[in-house]
Every structure is written in structure tokens, then in C-alpha cells.
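Posting for a labmate who doesn't have an account.
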Amino acid sequence: MPDPARRPVEIAFEALTAEDDGRTCRDIPERACDEQPGNFMRHVGALGLFKAADGLVDPKLVLSWLLAALGAPGVFIAALVPIREAGALLPQLFTAARIRAMALRKWAWSAGSAVQGLAALAIALAALRLEGAAAGWAICAALAVLAVARSVCSVAYKDVLGKTIDKGNRGTATGLAASAAPVVVIAFAVLLMFEATGRMGLVLGALALAGLLWLVAAAIFAGLAEAPGASEGGANGISAALANLRYLREDGQLARFILARGLLTSTALAPPWLVVLAAGAGEEALSGLGALVLASALAALISGYVWGRMADRSARRVLMLTGLSGAAAMGLALGFAALGLAGAFWTMPLALFVLMVAHQGVRIGRSTYLVDMAPADLRAVYTAVANTVIGLILLASGIFGALASLLGPQAVLILFATMALGGAIVANGLKELGGKT
């Protein structure tokens, strides 16, 4: 019979993680194991709100449309994705040592989430008050602040996750958050698709809501029961950052993981080119935005928890499967285009949905594998090294735009599909770390 003394949070934790071996923990201390049920629910709640806000402030879609509607020059629109991606990844090599010096790293994540919330509110305010180039400067500046704050969250999160959640439940926590977050984004997408008037107000309201969600996530995460961790070796600066690159040479598995992750960035870079193929559909810009946001949100809703559970058993296998499914999605889009169906209302959304399912798996698989692979005292450093290298790759991704202007979007998608297949092959050579059996 169930123990009536158990807290509801413990019952919910066991139901979500399918615990059948008691409270045994393999790689976190006994005290952290005792706090795991409550910490698990806080991870899900904070990360779910964080991801929901992320979906509402999408530089590729929402902010691009916003700047175009405000009459900002095209140079600002073209800068949005590089600012967001490079700004979120490149600073990590330099901030990891400072975060390492903190005994309680949850405060770094909470501060980063709060700053993102304030930056999102600043974007909404700028859109209300400014137009043209002035709006472009203000929104890009606020996005840069948001991106750097996100980089702090990224470094801190994996370390806190490794300290507070056991190895067999990390993918479940992040996957459940990824599945819960899209509910808000789906509602936003449906309104974008069917609301005929006041669409600018709808977008601005979504930005303001995102700001509030980030602030609430910061408060939830601050309540984690985190034990102080080792903080020696926290010297900051360029010399410490460059010294961390030695791990690429010293740890072959880290280098191979980064190579696989670099190839799998194709699942993140490909979606805009599916939209280009569908341009002949003749839809209004904002209606197309709604369809894209809806496809992405539905993919996360349906696949996040499943990918998370799979990652707890084998994150390596998840990376392999996502590479294969991402390549298949791009092949599907290319097939539709070859048959003259790219403009049909259902074809590109279908291909995009499959691609977003694959990308969701990449995000969960790479996070889970890195946390499980890295030594406990080097998680923040490994995360920073990996994300900085990937940031450089994404910063150089502008070359794909030049390729498309010369050869067309089909050539870019063929290249991305090849990269995804390569990522699956490289991931196959990663060490199997195991998890739940």
C-alpha cells in the first residue's frame, strides 16, 4: 500500500521517473538524493518556463518579423540570429571559470534567467517606442544582453543538474520540461494564424509574457536544494579560458562529441530554408510565422519527454537517431520540392515537424550525454568548451546564405542532410555511457 506519509512531490517524482528500485542514487550524494524529488520538480518547472519564453522570443521568426514591421534596415534583421547564437555560446569559455568559483551555481542560472526576462521586456518597450534604424539598434542591443545572460545559464545549468539529479533521471527532467513548455507557444502560434487584427499587439504581448516567464523561472530555480560544490580553480580571464581548450586534446571523447554536435547543428540551421522552399504558397508573412511556430511547438510537445526517457538509457543512441531523422526530414522537403508540392499548405509544415522532432532530440541528447560524460568537477568547463566551439561554427554559418544565393536552397538542404548523416555516424563511435537499463 502507498505510504500516506509521502509528500505529493515524491509521488509525482516516482510516477514521472518510473522509479522501481527505491531511492538508490548512483552519482550524487545521499543528501542530494533525499532532496531529489523536490529538486526534480523545480528543474521541470523552471526549465519549462524558460523554454516557453525562449519559444516566444525566436530571433529567426518572431524578432525578424518584428523588425521588418518596424521598418528596420535589413542589416539588423540579418544580424539577429548571429547575435543570438554566437552571443549565447562564445562567452561561455570565458565565464565558466567565474561560475566555477561559485559554491552554489544555481544563483548564476537564476541571475541569467532574470536578466533575460528584463531584456525581453526591453525589446517589447523598444518596439512600442521606436521605429526604423533606432528600433533595430535597440532590439539588437537588448538581444545581445539576452544572449550573454543565456550563456551564463547554459554553463551553470548542466553543472547544477549533475549535482542535484541522478544520472538516470536527467534526461527525463529536461525532456519533460521540453514537452510542457510548448503549450504556451502553441497558443501563441494559433492566435498568430487566425487573429486577423491587432497582430503587432499580439507579438508585443508575447514578448512581455516571455519576460515574466523568465523572471518566474529565476525565482523557482533559486529554491533548489543545492549542496556547495568545489570552487577552487575559479580564476577568470583569457588565459584560463584558452587553457581549457586543452581538454579537446586530452579527452578524445569530448572532441568526438563536439564533432558530432557540430554536424548536428544542421537540424537547427535548416528550418529557414524549408520556409524558403514554401515561399510560393502565397501566405501572409505572419500567417507563415504562426505555422512555423506551431510546427516547432508541437514537435517539442510530442517528442520532448520521449527523447528524454530514451536519453536516460542511451544518449548516444538518441544522437544517432536524431541525425538520421533530421536527414530524412530534409530529404522529405527536397522530395516535395522536386514534385512541385513545396507550395502546398501541408507539405513543408509536415517536413518541418519531422525536422523539429529531430532537433528536439539533438538538444536533449547532447545535453544528457555531456553531463553524463564529463567528470563531476569539470562539467562547467566541458560545457563551456563545447558551446564555444559550436558558437564559432554557428558564427560562420553565414556562408550558407552565400551558397543559397549561388546554388539555391535545395543545395543548402542537401549539404545539411549530409551533415546530419555525418553526425549520426560520428555519434555511433561515441562511448556508450549507459543509464537506466
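Reply:
Got it, the C-alpha cells are right above this. DSSP finds 21 helices and no strands in the chain.
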